[in-house]
Every structure is written in C-alpha cells, then in structure tokens.
Design a protein that fits this description.
With 328 residues, the protein is an alpha/beta fold. It has 10 helices and 16 strands.
C-alpha cells in the first residue's frame, strides 16, 4: 500500500483474555501498524509497537493540547479523547498518511481488502465508530476536535470537562463535526458490529433476524457463516466487534492459522460447520439480563440524566459563555 496507516490503542490494566487472538489478527495485517500505549510489559515485534507508559503520563500528553484542565479520571473516559490523538501523539505518528484508533474487543479480517488504496486516496475519514476509525494525518483532520460549533454534537470544551462518556469519538462528536467541515467520509459497513444484548450473534445493520451464525478467522481473513433455510451462507468482513461480550477460550487443536468464534467463546478448531449446525437460538440471555439493570441505573445516575439536563436546558447558554471566554 502506498499510504501508511497506524492505529493507536491506549490500554491500561490487564488485557482481555483473548488478546492473543486480537494480536494474531493484527499481525496478519502487515500493511497496517499498531501502536499500543500500556502499563503492561510486552515486547514490540513486526507491525505492533508497545509503548510502556502509565495512565497519568498518557493523560499528560493529551492535557498539553488543551487550554483548560481536562476531566480524565479513568481509562474508560479515554474514548472521548480519541480524536485528539492525531496532534497529541504526532511525535509517534509523524510520517504516516493516516492514523486511527480501535478497540481490543475485536478480531480483524483482511483490512486491505476493504480499506483499499482507492479508499485511502479518495477519503479523509474512514468509518464512523470508535471500535475502528481512521483519519488522514493532516491539520484539517488532526484538529477537527477543536471546532467550536453549534451543532447537536458535543464540543471538546464540553466533552473534555465532564467525567462521563459523551460519545465524542463517534455519533455525538467527531462524526457530525467531520460532516459540517466537509471532510470526505467513508461510511460503508464492512464490519460486524454485534448486538451485545442478544446471546446469538446479530450483526447490527446487516441482519433482519437472529439466525445461527459463527465467525471463522483463517490465515488472515475473517468470514461470517450463518445458517438460513438449511443453507450455509458466508460473507467476508473487515472485522468483528465483540463489545460487552464475555468470550471464553477453548482449544480443541493446536492449529494456529484458524479459530472459530461462537456465541461467547473462541474455539481453536479446524471445522466450523458442527458449531454452526448444532447452534441453538436462545431468546433469553441471562448474562445481559443481569447486567442491563446495572447499566441502566448506572447510566441514569452517572451520565444520561446529567447530560440530558445539560443538553436540553443549559447548553445554549453555556456555549455563549464559552465563546465569550474564548474571545477575551
């Protein structure tokens, strides 16, 4: 590829139990580099560079770009700061044509089949979600986050001051800003964003109903197989996102060039079809039923209510205050 791409992941604390599978799928994408800032001890190799640092030191890199004290008390809040990486980490990404951010709760397929040289040449922003977004490494994209707009989206001088997640890296932030600034924007859904409220895999935006389905990673490619009307259907994907889904690891064989993702497990095995054929559709999902009550009240208490009150009652006035402060 003529365009060089680096994907940035800050991660503090213990890596997910299936990190080795994420790593395997990332290494297979040799045309993409990965830069992981972490307090874990890992040796860099191939296209993955580990930068040993602390959460506080990484926070300081972000703080240097912002004129007021940022509210960043936990790694989870880093989601809102993802659009800031292009300028805050320029020391590490200088020379790349694109930089981006992604999560670790996903498995990559063959990214170059979807993020082609033609896509990279034609667009400046690729994908819409925080689990994987790329931006051209230039001032227009690196400083999108600083645009003081009056859109329905958050501004950085709002999102960076609250301890709660504002979705600034996605729909309620950088996506709306990019459109307002006429950034060339690739929004094709080449990936599987999996509904975490269902036990069986359901691909948001790609399926109309829940059916037996499994993912197969084989030699750098990712396929989704689903059974419908007795027929084994298949599609190739850029990646699959397993948000808020526990995944056990089961080793049936030692074969390293293939593994299978079934609901809530990663299985190292050679043959996916028995897992597909014997899959049972479950309408009840006890794990989520238990968790959703906790998340509902947590969001209402810590985020949703607070943000709803601000957005509906105080935002218009507060933005005038912020803009006046900026003029002085």
């Amino acid at each position: 590829m003529s365009n060089r791409v680096v994907i940035i992941i800050p991660y503090f604390g213990k890596f997910p139990n299936y990190f080795n599978f994420w790593e395997k799928s990332a290494v297979a994408n040799k045309d993409f580099d990965f830069l992981i800032f972490t307090d874990n001890s890992y040796k860099s190799y191939k296209n993955i560079t580990f930068v040993k640092t602390t959460f506080d030191d990484f926070k300081d890199l972000l703080q240097k770009q912002v004129e007021f004290p940022i509210n960043l008390k936990s790694p989870y809040k880093l989601c809102d700061f993802k659009p800031l990486y292009g300028c805050a980490l320029q020391k590490y990404i200088h020379g790349y044509d694109f930089w981006g951010y992604c999560d670790l709760d996903l498995i990559f397929g063959d990214l170059k089949k979807f993020i082609t040289p033609d896509v990279l040449n034609k667009y400046d922003k690729i994908y819409s979600f925080g689990h994987l977004t790329l931006l051209r490494n230039n001032d227009d994209c690196n400083y999108l986050w600083r645009y003081k707009h009056h859109l329905d989206a958050y501004r950085y001088d709002e999102a960076f001051k609250t301890p709660y997640s504002c979705n600034f890296d996605e729909m309620l932030g950088i996506n709306q800003i990019a459109k307002a600034k006429n950034i060339r924007y690739y929004q094709q859904i080449d990936f599987a964003d999996i509904d975490y409220t269902k036990y069986n895999f359901f691909l948001i935006g790609k399926q109309k109903k829940v059916v037996p389905g499994v993912f197969v990673w084989k030699e750098g490619k990712l396929f989704y197989h689903w059974l419908e009307n007795g027929k084994d259907n298949v599609m190739e994907l850029a990646y699959a996102h397993f948000q808020k889904r526990p995944m056990k690891v089961i080793k049936k064989t030692e074969q390293g060039d293939q593994f299978i993702m079934i609901p809530n497990s990663i299985v190292v095995d050679k043959n996916y079809y028995p897992y597909l054929k014997n899959q049972v559709i479950k309408t009840a999902y006890p794990y989520w039923e238990k968790r959703k009550k906790e998340e509902f009240w947590k969001n209402k208490r810590n985020h949703s209510l607070q943000q709803h009150v601000y957005r509906s009652l105080f935002r218009k006035y507060w933005r005038k205050v912020l803009d006046h402060q900026n003029e002085r």
